[in-house]
Each structure stands twice: as C-alpha cells, then as structure tokens.
Specification:
89 residues
Length: 89
Amino acid sequence: MSASMYASAALTLHSKQISELNACWNNVIRKIFGYKRWESVIGAIYGLGRLNVAFEFLVRRVKFYKRMYLVSWQCVVQALEYIDTVKTK
C-alpha cells in the first residue's frame, strides 16, 4: 500500500473516497488472510504494524506539512545568514 500512498499528502480526497479506499484495502487483507466478509480485519492490520487508510492519510499529511514547515524555516535561516554575510563584507 505504501506505493499507492506515496503522493497521498498532495491529494484532496473526500471522506467518502477515503472510506472506499479503506474498504478496498480491508478486502485485500481479507483475501490474503482468508477472512470472511463479516469478520473485522483491524486486528490483522494492526498486527502487521500498519494503520487503516484514513490514519495513513492523516499521518502522511501531517509529516508532509511538518517537512514543508521545516524546509521553509531553513530557507529563511539561509536567507538571513546570506544577508548577514553580505552586510559584513
């Protein structure tokens, strides 16, 4: 699933679309592990060390914004350092 989630932070999906992706992923887990349609697969997903699709989207989006914030601050610091070096010359 990580390959399909690669650009998830850049996507804007409605909650219904995320729910449908989650249901699809649950069906994949059911197929792999032989669960019946009415059986919950959340234990299997957590047992694999994964989160459901909705939380994966949320975590990836938070990480994306965190990186954007850190990069923007690094740019500001670099610009200020550059200005400081130009002033001292």
